[in-house]
Amino acid sequence: MAQQVITKAVLNNASAIAGKGMLVAATVPTGTTIHTAVSTIDEVFLYATNNHSASVVLTIEWDIANGAATHNTVITIPNKSGRFLIVDGRLITNAKLITAFAATSNVIFIDGFVNQIV
């Protein structure tokens, strides 16, 4: 069996590439693009920060196909409580898309990284 190579990389959303992370603007599906898998396997780690005056429900959409997510992760992000780990190494492959939407627009900030495994 060939040895696998693991490389740490930024999320491939334009804001993440610039080192800024991204605000979740969308409030309905299909949400704000977070990452598109580019390697054989991407191990995804995402963090969320809520600077709003109240807690906000955040939905991470996995594997968007034909405008509908096949799986969602739904989490309530407490307000003004720091940076929360929301995805802890979930695997995604084959150009699958990760998007997000929140109950309130432009108050949830997402950053993170991927371990690309080839």
Per-chain topology:
Layout: E1 6-10, H1 14-17, E2 22-23, E3 32-36, E4 41-50, E5 56-65, E6 68-77, E7 83-92, E8 97-102, E9 108-117
Antiparallel strand pairs: 1-9, 2-9, 3-8, 4-7, 4-9, 5-6, 5-8
Overview of the molecule:
The protein has 118 residues and is mostly beta strands. The chain has a single domain, classed as Jelly Rolls. It is 3% helix and 58% strand. It is built from one helix and nine strands. The protein has one helix spanning 14-17, and strands at residues 6-10, 22-23, 32-36, 41-50, 56-65, 68-77, 83-92, 97-102, 108-117. The strands form two sheets. Strands 1, 2, 4, 7 and 9 form a five-stranded antiparallel sheet that branches. The radius of gyration is 14 Å and the shape is globular. The two termini are 13 Å apart. The model has no long low-confidence stretch (mean pLDDT 88).
Number of strands: 9
User: Which class do the helix and strand fractions yield?
Assistant: mainly beta
What sort of overall outline do the alpha carbons produce when their principal axes are compared? globular
Number of domains: 1
Low-confidence stretches: none
Helix content: under 10%
The average pLDDT is 88
Briefly note the CATH topology name. Answer: Jelly Rolls
Strand coverage percent: over 45%
What's the story with the biggest beta sheet?
Answer: 5 strands, antiparallel
CATH architecture: Sandwich
Order of helices and strands: EHEEEEEEEE
> Could you tell me how far the N terminus lies from the C terminus, measured between alpha carbons in angstroms?
13 Å
Gyration radius from CA atoms, angstroms: 14 Å
The CATH class assignment is Mainly Beta
Number of helices: 1
